[in-house]
Design a protein that fits this description.
By secondary structure, the protein is α/β, with parallel strands linked by helices. It folds into 2 domains: about 10-140; about 145-290, Rossmann fold, CATH 3.40.50. Helices cover about 50% and strands about 10% of the residues. The chain contains 10 helices and 7 strands. It has helices spanning about 20-35, 50-65, 70-75, 85-90, 100-140, 155-170, 185-195, 220-235, 265-275, 285-290; strands spanning about 145-150, 170-175, 200-205, 205-210, 215-220, 240-245, 260. The strands form 2 sheets. Strands 2-1-3-6-7 form a 5-stranded parallel beta sheet, sandwiched between helices. It has a two-stranded antiparallel sheet with strand order 4-5. The longest helix has about 45 residues, at about 100-140. The chain is rod-shaped.
Length: about 290
């Protein structure tokens, strides 16, 4: 069958698709069946067209499955050595034992082909495990947290209404002043409890402010605007919903932020849509009943 190439010149094993691996396993199985059923009595002086055909088939399968001159190919290619020429026996004047030696070659070939099948089965299992692992990772990534951070000012009414609505939908509202301080600053508390996938920011007219010399206008508290900016940066605009009650000055830096009015009851449907757009499952029957 030729001299085995040095290890340095061996090529890497082919990386087949699952479909190609399954096809290789099927072809090997068919080849194993034909070898197992081969009738030794059909040999004529060690010659057999069937064995010659199987030799070519085995070489082709191994090349397609593992790649010619790969280490795996070299490990299994002896399976193609089926015939027995009996040259040494003829030279020494003996009668070659064609049947016995071909039978030995066939048995060796069967063992190697089954080992090649096992190798392909392992490759197929690795593909399946990779798919399961990828699906698990994707599923874990898709499992969004039910914790929703509620940024609020002084007004208790809007804060309690939003918290109650979120709880009715199965979410856990995180309200900062309800969390223990533990000696931390406001922003340290925000960071500690900010492991959420969505934030609702309530813009209520708690303060007044204006440019120097201007007329004071209602505006949200500065900590609310700071936390709005924090969650916009952390979560992205698509995962932050700003709800505005009454007349509130919106700083120019946040002019691009989409907000919904809390003057009325439509804010619930708006918040439900934003949560759904962010990837959360929403029971719209609960939204409409809230």
């Amino acid at each position: 069958m030729g001299q085995k190439p040095p290890a340095a010149s061996l090529k890497p094993k082919l990386q087949l698709s699952p479909l190609a691996i399954e096809r290789g396993i099927e072809r090997l199985d068919k080849c194993i069946g034909e070898l197992s059923e081969f009738n030794i009595l059909t040999l004529v002086d060690g010659e057999s067209q069937k064995l010659d055909s199987l030799t070519l088939t085995i070489k082709d399968i191994l090349e397609r499955c593992f790649g010619e001159n790969s280490s795996a190919y070299q490990r299994f290619i002896a399976a193609a050595n089926l015939r027995y020429g009996g040259a040494l026996e003829i030279l020494s004047g003996q009668v070659p034992d064609y049947s016995g030696n071909v039978r030995k070659n066939i048995n060796r070939s069967l063992g190697l082909l089954k080992a090649a099948q096992d190798t392909l089965q392992e490759d197929l299992a690795e593909h399946e495990n990779s798919i399961v692992s990828t699906s698990s990772d994707a599923g874990a990534a898709a499992a969004l947290s039910k914790r929703v951070f509620v940024v609020h000012g002084h007004e208790e009414g809007p804060r309690e209404a939003v918290a109650r609505f979120l709880m009715q939908l199965g979410f856990e509202p995180i309200i900062l002043h309800e969390q223990a301080n533990q000696g931390r600053t406001i922003m340290e508390k925000v960071e500690a409890h900010g492991q959420v996938d969505f934030a609702v920011v309530l813009l209520t007219p708690d303060d007044e402010g204006c440019a120097k010399g201007g007329k004071p206008e209602p505006r949200a508290r500065q900590n609310v605007l700071l936390e709005l900016g924090y969650f916009l940066g952390r979560l992205g605009r698509e995962k932050v919903c700003a709800l505005k009650r009454g007349t509130v000055e919106i700083p120019s830096d946040f002019a691009g932020v989409v907000w919904e009015s809390m003057d009325g009851n439509s804010w619930k449907q708006a918040l439900g849509r934003e949560l759904e757009a962010a990837g959360h499952e929403i029971d719209w029957n609960k939204v409409m009943r809230a």
